[in-house]
Amino acid sequence: MSKQNIAVTTDSVIFSTQNGETKVLLVKRKQDPFKGKWALPGGFLEDEEPLEDGAKRELEEETGLKVTTLKQLKAYGTPGRDPRGRTISIVFYGETGSEEEVKGNDDAEEANWFLLNDLPQLAFDHSEILEEVKQVFYSNS
Fold this sequence. Notes:
The chain is of the alpha+beta class. It has helices at 51-63, 126-140; strands spanning 7-18, 21-29, 38-39, 42-44, 71-76, 87-96, 108-115. Helix content is 20%, strand content 35%. The relative contact order is 0.28.
């Protein structure tokens, strides 16, 4: 059996709904690939870290936001989705009761809430991921 060279990441889709408007939390990437582009908060899983813990850690490191509950959606692993190499991302989603204050930290230049119907161009395959999460989120609301 050959050794695999695959990285595992977690990404989080966090919604906030106030006054009938739903927003999603995004971060502006500080580094390549996609430096300066908006993306879902996330990053590489540590070797001994459970998936949900990794998602919560990355979310807090990049935005300052702490969440208690995340739901796992699915894995994304199409070859070529990350120009750094073969990367499989486990995507989680959740909701905050209000539009919490966030600030870009770690490898995120900025963090901000965006209206779902007025999103910037997203890095990686995050537009596709967000569309699938929206379908699940709204069917469960």
